[in-house]
Amino acid sequence: MNAIKVSTSSLKAMMLVIPPIFILMGLLDTWVPKEIMVKYMGETSGWKGIFLAFLIGSVAAGPLYASFPVAAAFMKKGVKFRNIMILIGAWSSTKIPMLLFEMSSLGSTFALTRLLINVPGIILTAFLLEAMTSKEQKADLYQKAERL
Prior knowledge:
mainly alpha; globular; 8 helices; single chain
């Protein structure tokens, strides 16, 4: 019975998060031209793309599983693989509300130290994942995102 209660509660929580995310993804798909996304977060975006990926991931609302539809929409728009990995990493560990909670609960020193360790860690991980993922694997991922 406890497992059913927990499962039902989790399902309800997901049903409150997922529909707004899909609505926002539809709006992103409609309102933001692919050329803009490629310009600011595509293959030649450099540090600007990294910064935007961190910013979007850090201010985004919702649990980590909500980042995956966003990542798929970004793939459709031509966002660089590395920037997508940074977005997911930032979404999972550099959320601004989480930082504020940590500051109030665990102290500023802890929260800022964790943030200063996570940021380069996320960047390094994204660069490593990009280097370790073959062009064929990336192309396959982008093709699968197009079909969604």
